[in-house]
Amino acid sequence: MSNNDFLTVTYKMLSYLKWCYENGKMSDPDILNFDTFNVSMEQFGNILGTLKERGYVDGVSVKKTLNGTSVITIGNASITNEGLEYLAKNSKMKELYKELKEVRDWLPGF
Q1: In Å, what is the CA distance from 6 to each residue of 24, 26, 46, 65?
Q2: Residue 44 in contact with residue 37, Cβ under 8 Å?
Q3: Model-level pTM?
Q4: How confident is the model at residue 89 (pLDDT cuts 50, 70, 90)?
Q5: CB under 8 Å to 34, separation ≥6 — which residues?
Q6: What whole-number distance in Å separates Cα of residue 18 and Cα of residue 64?
Q7: 100 by DSSP, 3-state: which?
Q8: Is residue 45 scored above 70 in pLDDT?
Q9: pLDDT over 70 percentage in the chain
Q10: Residues facing residue 71 across a β-bridge
């Protein structure tokens, strides 16, 4: 799997938000951004929007403009119970966990 495909970036975003939840920290917009995950802003917006639509994250807004670009607003982004369940029960997420291990191993600033 590529480091910036949909499932890998999804796993990394949800894992970061899970880490924040478990450690009583607020998510940092300087970490939760397209540069951190090595994707374009458009790909970042698409993935974040999908996670929001599926109910896996809260505290974010992704809106498309008339010309098709994304306007991303990240307030106090957090993982939901559905997001935690998705990480725990989805076989691809478990596979990625084995591959990527701990958040601090791949997330800058930890």
Answers
A1: 27, 24, 9, 22
A2: yes
A3: 0.79
A4: confident
A5: 40, 41, 43, 44
A6: 27
A7: helix
A8: yes
A9: 82
A10: 63
Reported as a pLDDT band with limits 50, 70 and 90, residue 95 is confident
Q: What's the CATH fold of domain 6-102? A: Arc Repressor Mutant, subunit A (1.10.10)
DSSP letter at 50 equals H
Mutual angle of helices 91-100 and 81-89, in 10-degree steps: 80
Domain limits of the chain?
Answer: 6-102
Q: How far does Cα 10 stand from its chain's mean position?
A: 5
Strand partners, 57: 79
Residue position matching structure tokens 């807004």 = 61
Give residue 66's pLDDT.
81
Give residue 54's identity as a one-letter amino acid code: R
